[in-house]
Amino acid sequence: MDSILIIVLPAFGLIGLGYLIARLNYLSESTGDALADFVFKVAVPVLLMKSIATAQFTEINPWVFVLVYFFAIAVVWAGAIVLIRWVFKRGSRAGVIAGVAAGYSNLVLFGIPLVERAYGQPGLQILLFLLAIHLPTMMAVSTFLMEHAVRADGVETEKIQLLTIARNLASNLIVNPIIIGILVGLLWRASGLGIGGAPGHVIDLLARTTGPLALLSLGMGLIKYDVRGNLLAACSLAAICLLAMPAVIYVVASTIIPLPPLWFKVALLAASCPTGVNAYLFANHFKIAEGLASSTIVISLVGSLITIPLWLSLA
Q1: Which fold has domain 2-314?
Q2: Which of 206, 210, 235, 251 has minimal Cβ neighbours within 10 Å of its Cβ?
Q3: How far apart are CA 46 and CA 268, in angstroms?
Q4: What are the boundaries of each domain within the chain?
Q5: Is 153 strand, coil or helix?
Q6: Where do the H-state alpha helices sit in the chain?
Q7: pLDDT at 59
Q8: What is the pLDDT of residues 218-270, one digit of tens each?
């Protein structure tokens, strides 16, 4: 238990420090936004590029790992939609936001530093491989489901233009810094060039900033999110995110499709991360269920302080 607390408490300590810095206005809100921009636009892309260019996976076909993880997402996403639409009687658009809130874990700001602290560079490489698939897939699925939902709710009456949606999605992805980092990493890997010398040291230094700055920026960003009603629904979604998602991973990866120990541990820890801020950004973009998304982010982050040590002890 002491080793688990050594992994978890410093991460939450940095989040708390970031929150206090922003809440006390020691640094301005714009500083927190700038930190988050640096993490998303520089540190994480560089880290991804380096990892993809140099990663070696020999224990398992990595696509089996991806299959297990996305199966868990599908299960909890479906459960969240059923919960919000049929128990809380919300519309189809709110159901999609609920699915995002339950299944879109915060793998960047929270998962990267936590997995690196728990399992070092080998575990981090596994997580970054997952992230390379996770981001574009979740963006695509969320977008297509929302396009269907706006029509189901009667907000839009025109038929879905799949080609237009795909074109817009592709244009958004191609300029996404994380996607650019993935593509550069793939090209670098294909070139056969190593990462060494002075450029390698610069890349290493940038990559090492990812963990602490991600946690600080996450904490500073919390002042934007609060519990805005929807308390029972948000608590239910947080429970799905923190308990059901890792539980599905635990059962599937330990019995039905066994994973090697480190892959299993990374999958379980990634699945136990709280709701990502993308849930609120997505809700705010479509102007629906913003309070539900905001509340779930805050409640799941607080709750993860209890649930993450539990899952770490079972890994």
Answers
A1: Na+/H+ antiporter like fold (1.20.1530)
A2: 251
A3: 25
A4: 2-314
A5: coil
A6: 2-23, 29-38, 44-54, 62-82, 92-103, 112-152, 162-174, 177-191, 197-208, 210-221, 231-239, 245-251, 261-271, 278-286, 290-314
A7: 66
A8: 999 888 887 776 789 999 999 999 999 999 999 999 999 999 999 999 999 99
